[in-house]
Specification:
Layout: H1 3-17, H2 22-28, H3 33-40, H4 48-57, H5 62-66, H6 74-87, H7 92-107
Helix pairs in contact: 2-3
């Protein structure tokens, strides 16, 4: 597991959730946009000061920033989805709810 890459992907995801460009976030955390780009692709890591600035700028916590147990490969995600669907395959209302959620996510 490449911690720099995983951390960078987490920063990118949080940045996009806040509808920030790399330039905007870089300015907020006092680094050059090219350095933020390198962080997001896992080419370099950050200082403790930059971590503190990221937490403040992205309105997040240390825990949220570093928890990675939910990050899985697409194959692992699909396997988990299929496993859970098989557990509820006779529950019409739950299947309909899941269908609606999937439709919403795909369309948005």
């Amino acid at each position: 597991m490449d911690i720099k890459k995983i951390f960078g992907e987490k920063i990118k995801r949080l940045r996009k959730t806040k509808n920030l460009t790399q330039e905007q976030l870089a300015e907020m955390i006092n680094i050059a946009p090219k350095n933020l780009s390198k962080i997001e692709v896992g080419a370099c890591f950050v200082s403790a000061e930059t971590i503190e600035n990221l937490i403040e700028a992205l309105d997040t916590t240390v825990e949220e920033l570093f928890v990675t147990n939910h990050i899985k490969l697409p194959e692992e995600l699909l396997a988990g989805i299929y496993k859970n669907l098989n557990l509820i395959n006779n529950n019409q209302s739950k299947l309909e709810l899941i269908y609606k959620i999937v439709e919403f996510v795909v369309k948005n």
